[in-house]
Amino acid sequence: MSKYVVSFILVCLAFITKAQTIEDVIYLKNGSILRGQIVDHTTDSVVRIMVTNGKVWDLPASDIASFSKEKPVRKHQRFLPKEKGFNTIIQTGVFFPLSGEKSSYFHAGLIGTWRVWPCFFLGVGANIDRDSRTYCPIYADARYYVNRKYFAPYISLSCGKALAWDKDVTIGWRNMRNYGDLYFATSLGVEFPKNENLSFLLSIEYKYQRNHLKTTPPDEYYELIEENNRIGVKLGLLFK
Question: Which of 25, 84, 163, 214 could form a disulfide with 68 if both were Cys (CB 3.0 to 4.6 A apart)?
Answer without folding.
Answer: 25
